[in-house]
């Protein structure tokens, strides 16, 4: 068997594994240094609960300094709000214990619901407000008159931990703007590569055709399966773009240059995500059924290849003139191809490629001039109300159950159980799936009980002086701190470290009390059981239901977009930015669904819904210049009105759109009117084909929306569920 230490020493210093080891070790060292300083100062100024400063260090510590600063600010904000609420609730309901517990639980539930709605570390303010109410109230249960002093001590503990951690990490961590810009540049190049794979594939398939096909667009009626490498690459790229969002937010907190252009960088990431979403199996159908569009794909293939060469240099974002010139030249050549396009099928390829190039141009402008006048779009965050309300109800229920268990049994360390379940449920409300994360959180917390026991029997009795105390505490917390940001063990490691610090109960004048320690451990274990019981048994998450709600929301967004007057059609970027957030959440929900489901079909269907929105907006923009007659305008209005039946009869909606396309396409026009008429027909045909390809995605009786007793083996979204 190989020696692990020899294997560690044999690491290549340039390998990713060695770099991860070094960065984890550096982060752990910073955390332990922050713990040592914070705990020492807490002893020096005689704080009542010095371990609260350690808990604060463990919670706010983050390898990214910007994330640490943001987390610290919002932690302090939430602590102050929670302390004020706790004082007010205690003053108003001190005479009635049950009523006090009910109001307390309501505030905890409200905090959990708010935390689910907010993004990034803004959600942390709501989390802290929720469980600070309990932390402040617990010491004052026996003596309500001391509630104000308890609130002040809590604020002091948190403030000390925040200041020390921020100082240590800001002094010892390098902060560079270039790292964020390199990440944005890398994501842009990966987006271009992803698009290039599609167009090269379309070129190969189109060149293989011996003669032009007379088939209409997408006669196959269903999405083709893409090569697995494309699906894997798309998933990897979407994950990379999803991580860029928080990275930009955190870098903006710490770097003035990033902060000044943060809106532009956000838009760039959103545009790149939209570009990735544009490439789904419909592109493959379009290219195969219409080999006449090969020159269009050849043009964008050459353009994308040139863009990759132009963006190889590190400073292309500061000097984007060459990239912009390349895009403008390609758009000019597309206009020539568009003038020669008389078929709606070829026009569809031209329009789609033009959209891609325009988005690439806007992305380059967002990256190179993030404070320019073009950065006017503001994409509001999407609120998943159903999940938020469910998390709020869980938080309220678990807080009330814990309070009533203590009230009825009068268990000596019952308040510790209340503190744990409220803190854990508040922290879980920010997780993508609170129910799924509750079990690792409970396991990690349960493992902290034997660690606390070992610390109390093996380390603390032999401590002589503060350095030994600091080393003993750090040794006990080492596993949790080291694994805190591991993708598989992160939640459990976080629960281990945070709640181990809560159990150690190291004070200025320690008096060993085995009975209290045992009761504390029992309270923590009872809290773990209650956490899993509420989150996994009483109120389990139905990821399939959450996903179905998001699919319904995507369909309703298309219906609203088709019904809006032309003057009130939203900006392409505003509409798409909101839908991209829904799709991102949907992908996460689908990955957690346990029952059989056509995941690949639903992912492609969600991306196709984004394309439908683009086509609808493009269609509305082409109506006026097309010079339609009254009869043609009436047919178009009927086709758009058919979106009202999209959830009942998607095939009928597609048929109505095709009928309007046939009527408008039969009309004669020349010049610019004729060009816009061809654009209009191409949009109608594309929309109809996409709906016909995935009727089960939009139908109210689609496979994702079935009840438990109606569910069958994974039905494809390409199947129309209407009977």
UniProtKB/TrEMBL annotation:
Keywords for the protein's UniProt record, in alphabetical order: Membrane, Transmembrane, Transmembrane helix
Molecular function per GO: transmembrane transporter activity
GO cellular component: plasma membrane
UniProt cross-references to Pfam families, sorted A to Z: FUSC (PF04632)
TM segment ranges: 21-45, 99-118, 123-142, 148-171, 388-408, 465-482, 489-506, 518-539
InterPro entries, per the entry: PHBA_efflux_AaeB/fusaric-R
Designated name of the protein: Fusaric acid resistance protein
